[in-house]
Amino acid sequence: MLRLKKRPIAAAVLSLIYCAGAYAEDVATDAAQAVTVFGTRQTRQVSEVGKSDIADTAPGSSPLKAISRLPGVNFNSADTYGGYEWGSRISIRGFSQNQLGFTLDDVPLGDMSYRNYNGLHISRAISSENIARAVVSQGTGALGTASTSNLGGTLQFYSLDPSDKAGVNLQQSFGQDSAKRSFVRLDTGLIAGSNTKLSLSFTDQDSDKWRGDGAQKQQQFNSKLVSNFENAKFSAFLNWSDRKEVDYMDQSKDSIRRLGYNWDYYAPNWNTAINSAKHQWASGETSEDDAYYNGSGLREDWLAGATLDYFLTDHASIKTTVYHHNQEGTGTWWLPNPPVVNGTPVLPIALRTLEFNINRSGILSALTIESGIHTFNTGIWYERNDFDNAMRFYAQDSGPSSPYERPSDPYLTRWDYNFQTDTIQFHAQDTLKLSDQLTVNFGFKTPRSTTSIKSYNDTAASFRLNGSLTATKNFLPQAGINFKLNEHNELFADAAQNITAYRGVIKGGASPFDTTQAGFDAVKQTIRPEESITTEAGWRYHDRELESSVTVYHVDFKNRLLALQQGAAIIGNPSILSNVGKVETNGIQGYFAWSPLSRLKWSNSLSYNDSKYKDDFTDNGVIYHSSGKQVVDAPRWIGSSELTYDNGQAFGHVGVNYIGKRYYTYVNDNSVQGYSLWDLGGGYRWKNVGYANELNLSFTVNNVLNKKFFVFGDNPFPSSDAAGTSYNLLAGAPRTAFLTLGAKFK
Predict the structure, then answer these.
(1) Fewest CB atoms within 10 A around its CB: which of 128, 241, 379, 567?
(2) Nearest 10 degrees: CA dihedral of 19, 25, 29, 35?
(3) Is residue 668 classed as helix, strand or coil in its secondary structure?
(4) Residue 462: left if φ>0, alpha if ψ -120 to 50, beta else—which one?
(5) CA atoms in the 13 A half-sphere facing the CB of 558
(6) How far apart are CA 177 and CA 317, in angstroms?
(7) Which residues of 555-592 are buried (b: 16+ CB within 10 A; e: fewer)?
(8) What is residue 11's predicted lDDT score, i.e. its pLDDT?
(9) Phi and psi for 686 in degrees, rounded to 5?
(10) How far is it, in rounded angstroms, from Cα 113 to Cα 287?
(11) Distances 447 to 106, 272, 322, 433, 497 between C-alpha atoms, Å
(12) Residue 501: beta bridge partners?
C-alpha cells in the first residue's frame, strides 16, 4: 500500500460529489513492457494481459482476442477484429459470456451480451489503444467485483493513465475490405507544474464486411483525468462511442451446403428480398429464413466515472467510485411477411426493431485496513438501472430505409416495457499473512437484485406484463490459501459460491420476463437464480527465464435456466423460464512461457474442460436426453502457442490458437469441428526522426492459412438439430492483412 500522510478529507469528498465515474489503478504510461503474468502470491488463479499483448492484434481488434491466449478461455468471432458483437462469443471453463463478470476501471459493464440490458461491450467502452491491461480470474473473481453475472470468472480491464509528459500519438491503419482506422491521442503532461494530467483520444474506424454488402463503422472519444494529492488520488473518465454495424446472415449447416460459405443477406437487392418473401427463389433457397433483406446493430453509449482513492492513515484507505452509463440502441431486421394492421404495410417486408435504452448509475465504496497480520476489506455496491425495451415495426412502402439510422414513426408497437433494477451488494473479507510462506483469506458477499417490469401504454394487450423478481443470497462465501514453497514455487487453492441475477430483457437470452403474464405468474414463486460452487487448486513457478502454472478445478452448477414450452404453443401455452437441473465441470489448464533472451518469449497454454449436463428436460411434451452430454459451446480442448520478439526497434510475433469441437445442441446431435487459426505480425520503430520521437511501421495478418471455420451467433441454442437446419452458425473471416503507420511526438 502507498504510504501517505493524513490530510482533511472534506475537499476530496466534495470533488467526488460532482463527478461521475470509475477508478483506474496506477498503471505506468509505458505499459507496453507488460507481459502475461499469473498472480504471484494470489490465492486464486489470476492471469494478466498487458498493453503489448493487446497491441499484437490487428488495429481496432477487441481486447478479447488477446485474452484468448490465456488458458481456459474460448473466444471466437465471425469478423477478423472480434468486434462484431452478434457473432463474437467468449466462454471460460464452460461458462458462457452472460455468466461472466466484466468491469472497466471497476465500473460494471454488465454481462456484455449482444442484447445487453445492464452494460456495454468492452469494444465500445474504450478504444483498445487506451487499455493498459486486462486481468482474468478464470474461476473465482474478487469479492468486490461489481457484477451480478459472474457465476464463472471475471474480466477486469484497466485504462491507461495520462502520461507525465506532454505528447501526441498518431496511428493510421489500412487493410483488406477497405478497412481504415485513424487514432489520435493527446497527453497534456503535468499541467502547469501541478500533479494533474489529462489525456484525450479520438478513433474513427470503418471496414466493409468480408461477405455481403455493408460496413462496420465506429467512432470513439476517450478522455481521462488523473490528479495526485499528498495522500489521495483522484481519477475520472468520460467515454463516448457510436457504433453502426451491418449484420452477417445467420447460417445453418443445410443452408451452407446449398448456398455456400459466403452466402449473406440480399441487400442491396430489394426486389430479390421481396420475391423471397413470396417464396420465389432463384439461388437455391428453400425457405424465407435462408436470407432476409438486411439487419444491423446501432449503439450510442456515454460512459462516465470518477474515483477517489483516499489514504486515511498509513494503514487504512477508502476508495469510492461513482459512475453513469447512457445508451441508445437499436437492432434492425427486415422481416418477411410481418404482422399487418389495417392493411399496412403494402409490401410483404417490414423493418422490425428491437430497441434498447439504458440509463444506469451506481456507486462503489470499499474500506481497507491493515493491522498486524490482517488485511481487512469491506465494501458496498449499489446500482439503479432504468432500461426501456421495445419491439416495433416500420413500413417500407417506399423502399428500404438505411441500416445505419434509427427509424421513426412505427406502424405497430408489439411491446414496450420499462425495467427497473436495483442492485445492492455488500462484501467483507480478511487476508491473513500467517508467515512469510503462508497466506490465507476468507470472506463473503450478500447480493440482492430486484427487477420490476411495467408495460407502457402502446404495448399490445396480449403482450402486457407487470411484476417483479428478486435474486438474493444472504451469504456467499469465498476462501483461499497460498503457500510459498521457495523463491520460485508456490501452491494455491480456493473455493467460492456465486449466484446470478435474473436478466431483465426481452429476446435477450434466458429471461423470466420473456413470456406472457400467465407464464410469468406461473413461475415467479418457484424459479430460483442460477448458482455455482467453484473449487480450484494449482501450482505456479516463476524465475527470470521461465514462468509456468497448472490448475485443476471442479464446478457444481445448479438451477440452470432454460426457456421451455409448457404444452403445445398452438393452443396458447407460453414459453416460460424453468430450472432444468445441474451441470458438473472438471478440468485442468496449464501455461508455460520461456524467455531464453530478454527480447524473445515463447508462450503456450493448454486446457481440458469437461462440462456435462446432469439432467434431462421436457420441452413441449418431448423429453430431451441431455444428461451426460457436453455443454454447448464448451470445447473440451483449447490451446495456444505464440513466439514474440522485440529489441526496441524490430518486433514481431507468430502464433496459433486451437479451439476444439463444440456442440450447439443440448443433446449433442450436431456440432462444429475444431480449428486452428494462425496469426503473424511485425514491424520496425525509428527513433528521433525530425520532430518525431518515434516513427513506426507494422503489419498484421490474421488467419494466415485462410482456414474455413464456423462460430456461433447470439441465437438461442436448439435442443436438437440432427438435420442441421437450425440457424446458429456464422462463417469465420478469411485471411486478412493490415498495415499501420504511427508517430509519437513528445
Answers:
(1) 567
(2) -150
(3) coil
(4) alpha
(5) 5
(6) 51
(7) bebbbbbbbbebeeeeeebbbbbbbbbbbbbebbbbbb
(8) 34
(9) -110, 125
(10) 29
(11) 17, 52, 19, 28, 12
(12) none
DSSP strand pairing (671-672 vs 662-663): antiparallel
Share in percent of the chain as helix, strand, coil (round to 5): 10, 50, 40
Chain Cα centroid distance, residue 51:
18
Integer Cα distance of 73 and 367 in angstroms:
32
Exposure class string for 636-648: b at 16+ Cβ within 10 A, else e: bebbbbbbbebee
DSSP string of 561-617, one letter each residue: EEEEE-S-GGGTPPEEEEE---EEEEEEEEEEEEEEETTEEEEEEEEEEEEEE---E
φ, ψ for residue 363, nearest 5 deg: -145, 140
Per the CB < 8 A criterion, the answer to whether 357 and 298 are in contact is no
Contact 320, 308 (CB under 8 A): yes
Query: Position of cell 486478412?
Result: 736
184 pairs with which residues across the strands? Answer: 170, 202
What confidence score (pLDDT) does residue 342 get? 82
4 SS3 class: coil
571: Cβ contacts below 8 Å, ≥ 6 apart: none
Pairing relation of β-strands 101-104 and 154-159? parallel
CA distance 253 to 729: 8
- Whole-angstrom distance, CA of residue 396 vs CA of residue 384: 38
Cell numbers for 315, please give them.
494503514
| Mean pLDDT of the residues in the chain | 91
**Phi and psi of 330, rounded to 5°?**
-145, 135
CA 92 to chain centre: 12
Distance of CA 321 to the CA centre of its chain: 21
Residues 360, 303: Cα–Cα separation, whole Å:
10
Three-class SS of 304-330: EEEEEEEEEECCEEEEEEEEEEEEEEE
DSSP secondary structure letter of residue 460: -
E strand or H helix that includes residue 663: strand 662-663
Q: Which residue in the block uniquely carries the three cell numbers 445487453?
A: 116
Biggest CA-to-CA distance, the chain: 79
Q: CA 633 → CA 58, 531, 663, 710, 712, distances in Å?
A: 25, 19, 6, 12, 8
CA-based radius of gyration for the chain: 26
Are β-strands 489-499 and 476-484 bridged in parallel, bridged antiparallel, or unpaired? antiparallel
d(C-alpha 265, C-alpha 74), whole Å: 28
Compute the distance between CA of residue 214 and CA of residue 295 in angstroms, rounded to an integer.
Answer: 10
- The DSSP H or E segment spanning 67 is helix 63-67
- List the grid coordinates of 671: 456440432
Query: What is the rounded distance in angstroms from the CA atom of residue 639 to the CA atom of residue 637?
Result: 7
Contact (CB, 8 A) for 714 and 116: no
Distances in whole angstroms, Cα of residue 666 to Cα of each of 363, 615, 628, 662: 39, 11, 10, 11
The single residue listed with the C-alpha cell 442441421 is 724
- Give the three cell numbers for residue 425: 451488494
| Of residues 183, 185, 157, the one with CA closest to residue 54 | 157
258 contact partners, CB below 8 Å, separation of at least 6:
284, 285, 286, 290
Cβ atoms of 49 and 67 closer than 8 Å: yes
Residues of the chain with pLDDT under 50: 1-35, 567-573
Residues 120/327, Cβ–Cβ less than 8 Å: yes
Q: How far apart are CA 717 and CA 728, in angstroms?
A: 7
DSSP β-bridge partners for residue 624 = 617
211: which 3 cell numbers?
461477405
CA distance 433 to 370: 11
Contact 729, 675 (CB under 8 A): no
Which pLDDT tens digit goes with each residue over 253-296?
999 999 999 999 999 999 999 999 999 999 999 999 999 999 99
Distance between first and last Cα of the chain: 31
* Inter-residue contact 325 to 302 (CB < 8 Å): yes
